Amino acid sequence: MSVSIKRLLGFQTGRHALFRELCNHHKLDKKTKKLLLQIINELGVESPAMIFIDPQVLANAMSLPGIAHSVGAIRDLFYTWFDGSKGIMLESSEENLSLS
Amino acid sequence: MTPFLEKTIRLLANSENASSIELLQFLLESSDRDTREKALAGLYLKNSPEILLQLFDKIRDHEKEWLDLPFLTPDRMSKIIEPAFQSNHYELAKHACQFAVRNKLYESVGTITRLFKIHHPKWMELAAQTVLQLAESFYNDLADAPSETARRNMDRRREWFASQLEDSVRHFGMHDYIEPIKAYLLVAKKNYPFLINTFNDIHSKVCKTIIDLLQNQEETRFYRLLLGFLDDTSSPAIVDIILTSKQDPKFISSLLQTIGKNPSQQMRGALKRFLNFSWIDPNHENLPDWIVGLEENFVQLIANSGLPRKTSLAMFDWILRLPSVEGRLAAIKAIRGFHGEDVNNILIEAAEDSDPQVCSEALRLMKNRKIGKIDQILLQKVYHPSELVRRTIYQLTPDFHIENFFRNVGQMTENTATAFGKIVRNVDSNTRKHISQEIQSSIPVRRKVAMDVIRYTGLTEEYEDVLIALVENDDETDLRIEACWMLATILSANSYKTLQKAERDRNPLVQQAAIQAATNWRETVSNYARNV
Prior knowledge:
The complex is a heterodimer.
Chain A: H1 3-8, H2 15-25, H3 30-43, H4 55-61, H5 71-82
Chain B: H1 3-14, H2 19-27, H3 33-44, H4 49-61, H5 63-67, H6 74-85, H7 90-102, H8 109-113, H9 121-143, H10 148-170, H11 172-175, H12 179-187, H13 193-200, H14 205-216, H15 223-227, H16 237-245, H17 249-259, H18 265-271, H19 287-290, H20 295-304, H21 309-319, H22 325-334, H23 341-350, H24 356-368, H25 374-380, H26 387-396, H27 402-408, H28 414-427, H29 431-439, H30 444-456, H31 464-473, H32 477-487, H33 493-502, H34 508-531
């Protein structure tokens, strides 16, 4: 559905607005928000809110060299948000990234 | 699905941000069933025709997989396909119609009937076929309802379903498609106001079409509606005309089954309003085949309807000639309510019926009515091979009971007593038992009467031993003499020996009787030998 149609239908547009809505909804702290934004920017994710529903985004983030210090935090988010035992394995760039 | 994801989807479902839609659409592809269902619910709640169309597209590609989700109730599914009918895309609407029929989305019927307003043959044809298919499916579901609760639920939906069809039925004159009318007849109950008003508007095109369908079509699924009026004294006049004039064998069979072998009080009362049925005619060549197995029901129809007396009796007479014993028995019982010379003639013929039950019933009715020839007929049947008939005759002829014979034999002439005796012997199975009791009585007069009864009932030979004992041992001279004379008629060696012995009896009168009896015995034997 195009944005114009959505506007016509009275929906609020703005992918970033949705991202903010979700952050507030889940009561994320500033540090986490900052981390998420960093991931989104470095991966070039078009729709920021996708990070909340697509585990692949966090999995891909593990291979970002700039995020190495936050690998633990990312892993925590991954397992909490998406129940990481269900198929996707996380490995950081140091641990030879692989997905199974 | 994690609590986090669930919470996320909840926000997306309620968010007014347009971007939430693409996220929910992404989640529709999830491998997790719960996630897909929640995403579907979220998109459904957006209440956007465009989104609903997209959902329909997705669902019909993998129908089974999606329709397994609890969220997709028929109600919601009907709402999802609704934009397809309003889209002006014929192929899409056609897919939606087929989808509705396949999945029994009865809730769509109202939307589909509105396609008639498009006034294009292609669209109206599509709507017509679809509503009829949905109604046929609904009809089958009504019949298959597994419980009383399910039936009540179906009844509520039925009323709603029928109401959705009313518009397209009412406007039949404009679109000329008969399918909505057929659909309505499949679903409607007889007490729906729209139906009643239609029946009462006999000049309208709709009413005429309905009458034509009910009267002339051999559509068994319409029978339920028609026969629902059978026990209803307030049924529309036109319906009563159809009920009495429809000559379709399957309908007649259903009608008779509805009446049953033992109709309710309400049914009996309601049938009185029917004064004629076009197919009730003893000369109707197909009638025997049409009522096979339902003869008793047919008798109930004749007996309880308002047919002219002449017709009823003619039909009872006709039924009494059918192979069905149950039918004949039902007819003879139903005749109880009729009287007159013509009825008597029917009964006289029925008394010759090969079935013992029918015969017995006819005899009873005749005896109760004191029909002139009844005693003669009863006597003719004394030797009937059926024990049931003989028992009936016994019950109907107290004069021929052994106790009464014992009581009255003294006042009868020889000829009368002999004639009665033979009948009593065959009518009353207690004859021998009673004689045996009386012949052992300590009272000489009773023993004498017993000996007379033995003679009149033709049982002398059977009581040879008793008679021998009487000759030899009885205290009464008269009884010994009588016994001698009776032994003279039994051509056996034992009888003759007893008579010879009695020639030396202590009493001279007995001696004399024995001598004469023995002479008679010898003469009888010689005559017998000569004739042989």
